[in-house]
Amino acid sequence: VQMVESGGGLVQAGGSLRLSCRASGMITSVFNPATKAWYRQAPGKQRELVAQLGTTGTADYADFTKGRFTISRDNSRKMIYLQMNSLEPEDTAVYYCNMVDTREINYWGKGTLVTVSS
Q: Burial level of 84, CB count in 10 A (0-12/13-18/19+)?
C-alpha cells in the first residue's frame, strides 16, 4: 500500500491549492472505514494535524485553518483531498496524508511541499 500525495506547489498569499492523496493498492473494505487526515510540517517545527475525517464522515480542523481548509474523500477512487483557500505564508510546509485503519495501522505518504509567498 502506498499513499501518494500531489497538488503542492508555489502559490501567492491569498491563493488556493487542492491537495490530493491516492491510497494505491488498498482494498475498499480497508479504505472506507479508516480515519483519514492531513498533517503538515513546517521547517524547524513538529508535524501537526491539519484536518481529520472520521469514519462517519465528521471532519475536525485545527484552529489555524480558520475555515479556510476543507478535507474530503472519494471512497470509490480511494482518494483524500484537502482544499486550501486564502493561503498565508505561515501555511508553508510539507503536507502529508495519513490513514489509520480499523486495526490501528498507520499509513503515511511521503509528503507534498506547499510554499506560499508573501
A: buried
- How many angstroms from the chain centroid is the CA of residue 79? 10
Q: Alpha-carbon distance 40 to 92, whole Å?
A: 9
Q: What are the pLDDT digits (tens) for 61-100?
A: 999 998 999 999 999 999 999 999 999 999 999 999 999 9
Phi, psi of 30 (to 5 degrees): -90, -40
Q: Given its phi and psi angles, is residue 78 left (phi above 0), alpha (psi -120 to 50 degrees) or beta?
A: left
User: What is the amino acid identity at position 75?
Assistant: N
Please answer whether residues 27 and 88 qualify as being in contact, where contact means their C-beta atoms are separated by less than 8 angstroms: no
Where are any strands of DSSP class E within the chain? 2-6, 9-12, 17-24, 35-41, 48-53, 59-61, 69-74, 79-84, 93-100, 106-108, 112-117
Residue 2: CB atoms within 10 Å? 12
